[in-house]
UniProtKB/TrEMBL annotation:
Domain ABC transporter: 2-239
GO MF annotation, one: ATP binding
Pfam families assigned to the protein according to its UniProt record, in alphabetical order: ABC_tran
Origin species: Alteribacter keqinensis
CDD domains in alphabetical order: ABC_Iron-Siderophores_B12_Hemin
Mitochondrion found in the keyword field: no
Annotated protein name in UniProt: Heme ABC transporter ATP-binding protein
Taxonomic superkingdom: Bacteria
Length: 430
């Protein structure tokens, strides 16, 4: 529906969009992401004929864009941007009706029955009928944006261009607006090209994304393919972290403020009395655990292994293990790589906790859990593994150090597997 080939565009001698090619299919929601000044608005300007391009080709609905008359292009393509100040004196209905202009001939035009019907229908669809006689200036930012979307839709476009349409909207209006747009793309086969700043909004609502930097394509594809740590961190020149959305199969992007990165504390402290062994840290660990009494991934500051007495009040960010009938043994510690493995035995059952001073992705944590489970099975065949906790500080080594950490873990696990940690060691009291 929109085909851009080897496009070059800019201002004067300054080239902003550089050798850019992409194709947006009919009914697709295509997002354009990029840092400030990367050329997103310049690209939109070339698509709307507001800026002539110097090289390459743009075709909309199969026809080169330069062959469109202005009004003809407006019948095919509508633009929803964030600036509409000139319309504030008009009523909602008047603003929506302005969208019919490209379908009218001559300087003066009057609404016909089809116009009236469409205006009413789109106001209904965008849920603004109740305000139709009010001046636009009396509406909230989110309500106004719905009015402008209704105006774009009475244009009956095949292509909808969006320029940061959710700017200034609160989160509920952002979700509402984008949900309406995605629904329209599905129901009316509307093709949508949206310039967005919010990476998560783009991830959640777009079928495919184009990452733009310095007017060039950095990556293109589904959000899952494109929104990778390395692409984003390089593009925005800041550390962004990709994780998995808990309920939607889309990536979730988050960031880490510097003051958290530099925060530190004692990685691990052991306090042992006759009643309990406490393992705690200066800063909370990110923990994956098989414990059922809470989320599988949580932040924990203290592990308490209860040897005697009854469990007291549980502290915030604390996991309590009852080992009154068993023992608690540290099988192996390896501090050189900032890695420490704690094995806790409880009668015939085995609880394994691995504590790590470093940065490990969720993938790395699960990988480590599998490695350790295998090693324990080999070293203590009589025991069935019942609980597993992997605790990671997120401090210390860099993210690039994940391979080094896994290497260190693998060495340790091999030592355990090869029996270099003797079975009796498992019972050795610390
Ligand atoms: N009318 C203009 N004349 C000259 N240079 C311009 C003009 N408009 C934009 N530029 C320059 O072109 C570059 C790209 O601007 P553009 O507005 O396309 O970026 P953008 O990706 O939309 O940025 P933002 O995210 O900040 O909106 C910028 O360096 C900008 O200064």
């Amino acid at each position: 529906m929109i085909k851009v080939e080897s496009l070059e565009a800019g201002y004067g001698n300054r080239r902003i969009v550089n050798d850019l090619s992409f194709l947006v299919e009919k009914g697709e929601v295509y997002g354009v992401l990029g840092p400030n000044g990367s050329g997103k608005t310049t690209l939109l300007k070339t698509l709307t004929q507001a800026l002539p391009f110097t090289k390459g080709k743009i075709a909309v609905a199969g026809k080169p864009i330069e062959n469109y008359q202005v009004k003809e292009l407006a019948r095919v393509m509508a633009l929803l941007s964030q600036h509409h100040e000139q319309s504030f004196a008009y009523t909602v209905k008047e603003v929506v009706a302005m969208g019919r202009y490209p379908h009218k001939k001559g300087l003066f035009h009057f609404s016909d029955e089809k116009d009236e019907q469409l205006v009413e229908e789109m106001m209904e669809l965008m849920d603004v009928t109740d305000f139709k006689e009010k001046p636009l200036s009396m509406l909230s930012g989110g309500e106004q944006q719905r009015v402008f979307l209704a105006r774009s839709l009475v244009q009956e476009p095949e292509v909808l261009l969006l320029d940061e349409p959710t700017n200034h909207l609160d989160i509920s209006y952002q979700i509402e607006l984008m949900s309406r747009i995605v629904r329209l793309a599905g129901e009316k086969r509307l093709t949508v090209l949206a310039v967005l700043h919010d990476v998560n909004l783009a991830s959640m609502f777009c079928d495919r994304l184009l990452l733009l930097n310095d007017g060039k394509k950095v990556a293109e594809g589904t959000p899952g393919y494109v929104l990778k740590d390395e692409n984003l961190s390089q593009m925005y020149n800041t550390r962004l972290i990709e994780s998995t959305h808990p309920t939607v199969p889309k990536p979730l992007i988050t960031y880490e403020p510097d003051h958290y990165r530099s925060a530190n504390g004692t990685f691990i402290r052991f306090k042992e009395t006759d009643a309990k062994l406490i393992i705690e840290s200066g800063a909370p660990w990110r923990v994956i655990t098989t414990r059922k009494n809470g989320p599988a991934v949580r932040w924990i500051k203290r592990f308490t292994f209860l040897k005697e007495g009854i469990p007291g009040q549980k502290e915030n960010q604390e996991l309590i293990f009852d080992i009154r009938k068993g023992r608690c043994t540290i099988v192996k510690e390896k501090h050189s790589g900032g890695f420490s493995l704690i094995l806790v035995l409880n009668e015939g059952e085995v609880t394994v906790s691995a504590f790590l001073n470093g940065r490990l992705s969720d993938n790395g944590m699960f990988h480590l859990a599998t490695l350790i489970a295998g090693a324990v099975k080999a070293a203590a065949p009589g025991y069935s593994l019942c609980e597993m906790c992997i605790a990671v500080t997120g401090m210390g080594g860099s993210w690039g150090g994940e391979n080094a950490i896994m290497e260190s873990a693998r060495d340790l696990v091999n030592e355990i597997k090869k029996g270099e940690v003797k079975r009796e060691d498992l019972y050795e009291k610390r």
